[in-house]
Amino acid sequence: MLNEKFIEDIIMVALSTGGDFAEVFVEDRYNTEITMIGGKVENSISGRDFGVGIRIFKGLNSVYAYTNQHNKDALMDMAIKTGGAMQGTKRDMELDFVKYDYRNINPIECLPNSVGKSQKVAVMREAYEAADGYSDRISQVIVRYLDYNQNILVANSEGKFAEDERIRTRISIQSIASKDNEMQTGLYSPGAHMGFEFYDKIDVGQYGREASRIAVTMLGAEPCPSGRFPVIIDNKFGGVIFHEACGHGLEATSVAKKSSVFADKIGQQVATDIVTAIDDGTIPNAWGSSNIDDEGEPTRKNILIENGILKGYMIDKLNARRMKMDTTGSARRQSYKFAPTSRMTNTYIAAGESTPEEIISNTECGIYAKYMGGGSVNPATGDFNFAVMEGYLVKNGRVDKPVRGATLIGNGPDILYKIDMVGNNLEYGQGMCGSISGAIPTNVGQPMIRVSEITVGGRSGGK
Amino acid sequence: MDVDRLKGQIFEHGKNEGFTDMEIFHENNSGFSCKVFKGEIDNYVVSEEGGISFRGVHNKQMGYSYTEKIDESAIKVLVEMAKENAEIVENEEEEIIFKGSKEYKNINLCSNGLAGIPTDKKLDFIKELERKAYSIDNRVINVNDCIYNDYENERGLYNTKGLDKNEKSNFALSYISVIVRENDEIQNARAFKICRDFRDFNTESLAKRVVDRALSYLGAKPVKSKTYTILLENIASADLLKTFSGIFSADNVQKGRSLLKGKLGEAIGSMPLTIIDDPFMDGGVAGRSFDSEGVASEKMSLVEEGILQGLLHNLKTAKKDGVESTGHGYKSSYKGAITVAPSNLYIQPGLNTYEDMVSSMDEGLIITELQGLHSGANTVSGDFSLAAKGYYVKNGKIENPVNQITIAGNFYEVLKNIEIVGEDLKFAMPDITYVGSPSLKIKDISVAGE
Predict the structure, then answer these.
(1) Separation CA A387–CA A238 (nearest Å)
(2) Residue-wise pLDDT tens digits, B299-321
(3) What is the DSSP string of A216-248?
(4) What does the DSSP assignment read for A54-79?
């Protein structure tokens, strides 16, 4: 990384034109990605990312510059140019770094770079064989493996000097099932803020079989009916509904400029009283966890909604100024190529009291979304959409035949008032969330929930 | 430390470590981006970055590596990582480092009409754009995104077979999103403009386009769930084609991820459908004279009057099918491995005006915007179910705006159900590819609403 004195010099130069806050972010990261197609390793790529970002604020104005130059002259030059975008005179200040010593909530047992590539391939092969062997209908299996070791340093003109090491590991299994001229896919992608020990804790074969089971089930499925139905959304990745429908609207990125439907609603009821939602960057070794955020603040457990009442937002430093509120340890970025902003970490709806059996048996007619695909939202209107990867009809309180090609659409604030049952089986799923500060690892989670009415888009006409 | 000096040392070290053929790909990017919010510069980003990637054949297998830290340490790191990677790869086909094509077309992808524009002018432009958007109508309550970006990319490809190519390109993008309110109803619309000459940006027309669009959505409601004929507006249609453009990749066809297997020479679309890939297209953001393997680029027809004429190939997929590479070997950046991707891909415009297409509809929907393309579209099966916005058309006239609906279908069937192709070719926001389409009239689309 860069030494303390050098970073201090950069910050002082960056503030020489009237900025009131400056921050340096240094990233050094090693990546490994292996792709196995049809049981053979097709590609293996490894590499090193390295770069520096400099950010300066003056009031609500912000300037960001990044480079992967690493020599002193080039970086000082960049600091001068970046500062040049601010017009003003230097204020007197002194800088005294306080090294931040944090608790390590994400202990790593086995560093990815201490494990030979052939061991990584062996894990992939186990997943491949389980997926491929599931059924004769499986025509292709693609297994992707990735790990990375990201070392970051954040220092700022307030004296903050903090470092963090994020090690993340993930395997993704995509099964394709074919019959005649039709194909369906199933996907499972578990991941964690862990080293190679992750594979001692999970059974990759089980995930491989699950990916294939989804693909084969969907191959026989009929097109989903369209219209408005009660929808039961299962746990784990089902939490993507809250992530898309509400989570993005609670990020300061959209709240601060009042372009979110949740702006100015703290203390007000925004959901049914059985809904409690949390963003928690401190869950040990979880996919979306880190010790500190990308502004150097310790991550926290932030209650967003408690028993239906809006309690808080996720806030980064710049938006904190705009909103005149405190930061929440939620500033994240994909890499040094992005200025940080408020983002989700591990976001979930807390467990309720109903059992999954009760929820299903209380639903006369509707759709059961067992596994969700991804989705997106327009934070300005709250309109969201997301795809159902594995869905079923529900008839007379029982899960009926599978249906494919369903998309759920609706409006975030509206849907929160329609959650009428919350299960007791909270679990998480892993995803990559894309927004203005890049693609970052996020956990979504929830127990099984029921929404009294959602518009379901499918291909087989009205109900 | 510059790449010119490093590359000789990397090749030498690689040779000592047992690599036969080797290649270095190098990229330098510089960018500027600014965003304005209520008259203030809200975000201002300058960047200068790049990296080098190495790939080489070791015991008949290709190993890849890259680094963004370009110094002496890179020599050892790149070669070692690539060797370790080559050792686990299990490809049966021959790995190829290419010696070069006979001829390359000379094209200019880097305009001076952009490179020389001072920052102040760009800031003035983006502030003016925001001001105009607010001034057009007092129902505009928020210009939530008002952004100007420009990029310059320089890439170089050198290998031990003697290839030495480089190319520079640039483009600029302006993007605006507005929120309008009437009573308690909120609507939103977005618009963008891409060009290589700063003078092509016009604040008046961009602001008017986005505000008019947002206002036109006021009063939007879902329609009845049933099957409709739709007029898929040019940018929405380009977005859909972009999402499914991978079906034309020979790599996907060979690996069972595209249903175009064995369909060459067969009708896969309706008569009015012709799809072109043109790396030399004027103003094409994905333009190039050579691909990521060094093969000379060429213009080609993928589909002509509905008949599948060809697939996109790189060297490896071409060899497998016994054809020549079409120059579509693609690396997303120095971080990627060689895959296949189109350059500037578009549906060839027809002769029909937008107005004529609307008036030809008894009952139908104009679809202006699609959402959830990354999740609601299955690029393998072709199935899609996407949130959409637009207008309801009755007897050839727009009756009311429509939202909170989904449109669902199968892309392979859509190609066959295109009835009319418009004259109004437009391109979607660029990412790895630059994809365009005119507005298309398509029958039999399932719509879910009420």
Answers:
(1) 10
(2) 999 999 999 999 999 999 999 99
(3) HHHHTPEEPP-EEEEEEE-SBGGGHHHIIIIIG
(4) EEEEETTEEEEEEE---SHHHHHHHH
The arithmetic mean of pLDDT across residues A406-421, rounded, is 92
- Distance of alpha carbon B271 from alpha carbon A326, whole angstroms: 61
Interatomic CA distance for residues A321 and B166, integer angstroms? 45
Beta pairing partners, B388: B370, B405
- The alpha carbon of residue A257 is apart from the nearest alpha carbon of chain B, in Å, by 7
**Residue whose token pair is 């012709």:** B274
pLDDT at B393 over 60: yes
* CA separation for the pair B156, B334 (Å, rounded): 10
Query: Among A46, A385, A460, whose Cβ lies nearest the Cβ of B371?
Result: A385
pLDDT in tens, A168-203: 999 999 999 999 878 899 999 999 999 999 999 999
Residue indicated by tokens 């080039």: A74
Give yes or no for a contact between A154 and A427, defined as CB atoms under 8 angstroms apart: no
What CATH number did the domain enclosing A187 receive? 3.30.2290.10
Degrees to nearest 5, angle at CA A365 with A362 and A371:
85
Mode of pairing for the β-strands spanning A40-58 and B61-67: parallel
Amino acid at A57: F
Q: Please say if the pLDDT value at position A463 is more than 50.
A: no
Q: What is the mean pLDDT of residues A152-178?
A: 96
Could you tell me the pLDDT band of residue B1, with boundaries at 50, 70 and 90? low
Backbone angles phi, psi at A402, to 5 degrees: -70, 150
User: Cβ contact (<8 Å) for B404 and A383?
Assistant: yes
pLDDT at A100 over 80: no
**Burial class of residue A453 (count of CB atoms within 10 Å of its CB; 0-12, 13-18, 19+):** middle
A175 and A83, same domain (yes or no): no
Residues A199 and A341 in one domain: no
Q: How far is CA A438 from CA A334, A385, B145, B286, in A?
A: 5, 20, 16, 22
When the pLDDT of each residue in chain B is averaged and rounded to a whole number, the result is: 95
Q: Does A58 touch chain B (CB under 8 A)?
A: no
* Residue B328: both structure tokens together: 């579509």
Q: For residue B430, what are the contacts with CB-CB under 8 A and spacing of at least 6? A: B171, B173, B194, B285, B286
CB of B225 within 8 Å of any CB in chain A? yes
pLDDT, tens only, B236-253: 999 999 999 999 999 999
Residue B355: CB atoms within 10 Å:
10
Contact: A45, B336; criterion CB under 8 Å: yes
Closest C-alpha among B314, B197, B182 to residue B248: B314
User: Hey, which residues does A182 pair with through a beta bridge?
Assistant: A179
Region B112-216: CATH code: 3.30.2290.10
Q: Which residues of B touch A383 (CB under 8 A)?
A: 371, 387, 403-404
Residues A235 and A200 in one domain: no
Give residue A248's domain range: 227-457
Mean pLDDT on B138-148: 95
Shared-domain flag, residues A72 and A138: no
B266 touches chain A (CB under 8 A): no
The whole-chain average pLDDT of chain A stands at: 93
A364, pLDDT greater than 50: yes
A144 and A191 share one domain? yes
In this structure, how many other beta carbons lie within 10 angstroms of the beta carbon of residue B178? 29
Q: What is the dihedral of CA B414, A407, B369, A247, to 10 degrees?
A: -160
What's the pLDDT at A461? Answer: 54
Task: Name which of A64, A257, A385 is nearest B376 (Cβ-Cβ).
Answer: A385
Residue A460, pLDDT above cutoff 80:
no
